[in-house]
Amino acid sequence: MEAHELRNKYGPRELRARLEAEGFPRTTLSFYRYVRLADPAALRNELYAEWEAMGVFGRIYLANEGINAQLSVPTHNFEAFRKAIDARPEFSGVPFKIAVEDDGKSFLKLTLKVRQKLVADGLTDAVFDVSNVGQHLDAEAFNRKLEEGALVVDMRNNYECLVGHFEGAYLPKAETFRGAIDEVVDMLRKQPAQVPDQGTGSVDPPGRPTTTEQPEILLYCTGGIRCEKASAWLRHHGITNVGQLHGGIIDYARQVRAKGLPSRYKGQNFVFDGRLAERITDDVVSTCMQCGQPSDRITNCQQHTCNMLLVQCEACATTYADCCTPSCREIHLLPEEVQREWRKGKPSASAKMKAIRDPEALRKRIAEEEEELAEKGTLHPELIAVMPVPQHPQ
C-alpha cells in the first residue's frame, strides 16, 4: 500500500455513521513504552496498514524514544492485536491499560503521527538522566504511602484535575505539562516537611528544606507516561524521595476493583478521547461553572470557534444549548451555512486556551450577556451581514 493511502479519507459525519453501524463491541485501551526506535516513520506506515486491517481506531504517537498509544480495538480482534504487539520485540509484553468505562465510541478513526517526543514536555533530555525515574508503585503501595503521610502531586494539566483527583493532592494551576513540571519543582523546592493545605493544595513555604527534611513525594497522571519524565526531572533537581503510580489512574482503578481496595482517587478520570472522562467513583468533586451546583459533567462548548472545556450540569447544557455563554449559544443555534460564513477569518479553537479558568468570571459574563441580549436582541450585530435575505413571493 502506498504511503499516501495510509491515512483517513472520511469526514467526521461519515466516520460517526460508520461507527454507529458497526454492530460489535470495542475495547478502549492505552499503552506506552520508552524504547529506541530506529525509523519511526517506516514503523508508522507498517503499523497503520496492520492496525487498519484489524479495525483499530485511536491516536498513536511514535518518536525515536518510543510509542504512546490510546486506541479502540474491535473486541473480537483483541487477542489478535495483543499477538501482533507481542510479535514486535520493541513492544513485546507492554502492559495494556484497559478503560474503566467504555461505550465503544472513544475514537472515530485511526491516527498515527511521528513526533519529536512522545509527550510535549519542553524538556531537553540531554541535560538530565531520563532513566533515573522514581519508584514504581502499585495501587496497594500507593494507598499505604498516602496513609503514612506522603505528599501526593497531580502531574496533569489544570483542566484534567477538574472532575477527579486523589484526596489531598497538590493540583497544579498550569495548563500545560511543562508548566505543571515547573510549578511542581518550584513548590517542592520551597515545601516544608508537612503536607500542604489539603483542601486547596496551596502551600505557604518558609524556605527550601534540606534533603533529610524532604517529604516523600508521590506522583500520578492518567496512564503513567508523564510521571516517567516528571520523576526524573524532579530527581535531577535534587528532589530524590519520589515514587510514581505505575500505570496511572487507569490501572489504579483496575487494581482497586480487582483487589477490593479503597479508592483514594475520587470522581472521574479525564481522558483524551471522545468520552472526555471515565468514572472511577461516584464522588462529585466539582461544580457546574455556570450555576455553581455540584456536577462533574465535563464537555466542550459546541460553538466551533470556541470549543472551550468546562464543567456544565445537564440543566445548564439545556439553557445554554451545550455552549459556554449566551454569545456562543447565539452562533451555535444558527443554520450551519450561516455559521460557516460567520466563521470566515476568525481564529480556530486550537489557537485559544483549552479550558475555562475562572467560573466566577464566566457567571458574571453570562449575566451581562443575557442582559444585553434582552435589551438589543442580539450579541452579534455583525450577523446582519451574513444572514440570508428573506425571499418574498412574487
Topology:
Elements: H1 12-20, E1 26-34, H2 40-53, E2 57-63, E3 66-74, H3 78-86, E4 97-98, E5 110-114, E6 135-137, H4 139-147, E7 151-154, E8 164-166, H5 177-189, E9 217-220, H6 225-236, E10 242-245, H7 248-259, E11 265-270, E12 277-279, E13 298-300, E14 309-311, H8 314-319, H9 326-332, H10 336-343, H11 359-376
Parallel strand pairs: 2-5, 6-10, 7-9, 9-10
Antiparallel strand pairs: 1-3, 1-4, 2-3, 8-11, 11-12, 13-14
Word description of this protein:
It is built from 11 helices and 14 strands. It has 394 residues and is α/β, with parallel strands linked by helices. The protein has 3 domains: 3-114, Alpha-Beta Plaits, CATH 3.30.70; 128-267, 3-Layer(aba) Sandwich (Oxidized Rhodanese, domain 1), CATH 3.40.250.10; 286-366 and 374-380, no CATH class. The strands form 4 sheets. A 5-stranded mixed β-sheet has the order 4-1-3-2-5. A 4-stranded parallel β-sheet has the order 6-10-9-7. A 3-stranded antiparallel β-sheet has the order 8-11-12, covered by helices on one side. The protein is globular. The protein starts with 11 loop residues before the first helix and ends in an 18-residue tail after the last helix.
